[in-house]
Amino acid sequence: MAGGGRLVQRALPVTTWVRGSDPAVLSRLQHAAVVRPGFLSKDEEETLSSELEPELRRRRYEYDHWDAAIHGFRETEKSRWSKASWAILQRVQAAAFGPGQILLSPVHVLDLEPQGYIKPHVDSIKFCGATIAGLSLLSPSVMRLVHTRKPGQWLELLLEPGSLYILRGSARYDFSHEILRDEESFFGERQVPRGRRISVICRSVPEGMTTGRPEQLPPSC
User: Fold this and answer.
1) Distances (CA, A) of 121 to 27, 91, 118, 177
2) Are 119 and 178 spatial neighbours (Cβ–Cβ below 8 Å)?
3) Can you tell me the distance from the alpha carbon of 14 to that of 204, in angstroms, rounded to the nearest whole number?
4) What is the pLDDT of residues 80-94, one digit of tens each?
5) What pairing do the DSSP bridges indicate for beta strands 141-147 and 154-159?
């Protein structure tokens, strides 16, 4: 499962992709934490996976991230895309970002091995703007958001292969987010088996930045 870039797991039979600690949190974040299942077709998933695989294969999985937020990962920043992949990224921009938002370039690509995970963190305002949007490839996973000052308030997003998630506003600034490790990967009572997961992440520029090409940007925000 951790080998090539072929799609390894398909959508789970569910009817909801967001669950939360209480109705108030769900209502508050209904437009701030969004999941769009099936955003990509199977062919589009394969297009992205096939384009990314040769570059990712040249890198080793790492276990010490620069801010200790990720375990069992490899990543890259990609600026040049095929025509087909670029068309997909343009759809992401139209779906997730406002007309006045400038996107960071390059795009961040994160590859988690089956036992890899992302620890709870809030992306630095120095390196990321108000909106973060990610495409999920290869394997389903669960993203958990927890309020940084009121941990009893939480949200979970089921991210199936081909889905698009969007974090903006309060979900981006007031809640930490994480990708659950395999042994904790449940969506309610439903186990969500983890495999290798690739995410393609688009980010708006930090406030005050007028270009999408900062001179110095860490590999992940």
Assistant:
1) 23, 27, 8, 6
2) yes
3) 31
4) 999 999 999 999 999
5) antiparallel
End-to-end CA distance of the chain: 27
What pTM was computed for the model?
A: 0.86
Here the tokens at position 26 are 């769900």
CB 171 within 8 A of CB 164: no
Q: What is d(CA 216, CA 126) in angstroms, rounded to the nearest whole number?
A: 11
Please provide residue 184's backbone torsions phi and psi, each rounded to the nearest 5 degrees: -110, 5
Cα separation, 26 vs 145, whole angstroms:
12
Average pLDDT of the segment spanning 107-130: 92
| Rounded CA separation 157/25 (Å) | 13
The residues near 112 (Cβ < 8 Å, ≥ 6 apart) are 70, 72, 73, 118, 141, 179, 196, 197, 198, 199
H or E element in which residue 96 lies: helix 83-96
**How many CA atoms does the CB half-sphere of 154 hold within 13 Å?**
15
Percent of the chain with pLDDT over 70: 85
Sign of the dihedral defined by the CA atoms of residues 160, 193, 7, 89, in that order: positive
